[in-house]
Design a protein that fits this description.
The structure is a homodimer.
Chain A: H1 4-13, H2 20-31, E1 35-36, H3 37-44, H4 53-65, E2 70-72, E3 80-82, E4 90-94, E5 100-103, E6 121-134
Parallel strand pairs in A: 4-6
Antiparallel strand pairs in A: 1-3, 2-3, 4-5
Chain B binds a DNA duplex (25 and 25 nucleotides) through helix 2 and helix 4.
Chain lengths: ~150, ~150
DNA sequence: GTCCCTGCAAACAATTTGCAACCCT
DNA sequence: AGGGTTGCAAATTGTTTGCAGGGAC
């Protein structure tokens, strides 16, 4: 795993201990972005059979709080996690099968939208979720979210 | 309640029966937008002491499915409901106190952002949530979500 | 009178919390 | 050795589901 060294460095930078569990979670999410907590656990138990779902939740929480992961909440389903924390990209979700794709921000700044003014609120960021139907699901609306 | 007649008409248009519970839920949300299901129940029990939280959930689900209400999921907290279904406005959320404000869409169309192309997905709409800190919470970060 | 809707209870899913044992440093 | 982390269990929150009685039409 060529990314292991990078994860180790990043963990050390944040004064976090380098554990097998954290490395496995980071590897799984780097390989398959947009995994839910359950899906992360399913991907990780193959290497660490003793890891529990609760530990995955703890790891995800700690790594998110330390900016190594980014969490986002698709409408109506469980939270997803990804390793791209450096940019301000957004997401597109297929309302039929639940698949999620990254959408690069056209303007490249955060927030990439015109930050609304006169709100009585200082805006720090904007989360954007596009909803639609992906090509595989067009013409086959009987599918269930995967 | 001057809106009662309007609600009655809208319910009849959708072939939905006009019940005290539905009118009370609609009134509560029209008066206080962005209520959660629990908050709707708390607001409604004052007039209908016998209503249960589960009935509120059912009413919210049915009215949302029939376009009388709009549901949206703020990141990390319970679903909220509002009566503005006619336009494509967005939301701004204070990350300190949890308060939510409407943000009118600058372009007035849905989706108001440049719909991304070449995605392998046909985009139908865009949900935008701005995150920030409202004026009352600036300088008092110790507050908890209300 | 018919059938949709409500009330009630139970189940369910996603996530958080408390504590002792463990292992990274 | 010491304290941050994990494993395990239980509790919590938000929401959905199944069914019998009741109210809208």
């Amino acid at each position: 795993m060529t990314t292991a060294n990078t994860w180790t460095e990043l963990l050390r930078e944040r004064r976090l201990r380098v554990t097998r569990q954290r490395l496995a979670v980071l590897d799984a999410i780097a390989e398959h972005p947009h995994l839910s907590a359950e899906a992360v656990h399913a991907a990780v138990v193959r290497r660490l059979p003793e890891i529990t779902v609760q530990s995955v939740y703890t790891v995800l929480h700690d790594l998110t709080a330390n900016q190594l992961l980014r969490r986002f909440d698709p409408p109506g389903s469980a939270a997803r996690y990804e390793a791209r924390t450096d940019d301000n990209h957004h997401h597109a979700m297929c309302t039929v099968c639940g698949r999620i794709e990254d959408v690069d921000c056209a303007r490249g700044e955060a927030p990439c939208l015109q930050a609304p003014t006169g709100l009585g609120m200082e805006i720090e960021a904007a989360d954007v979720v596009f909803r639609g139907v992906c090509r595989t699901c067009v013409g086959d609306r009987s599918r269930q979210p995967a």
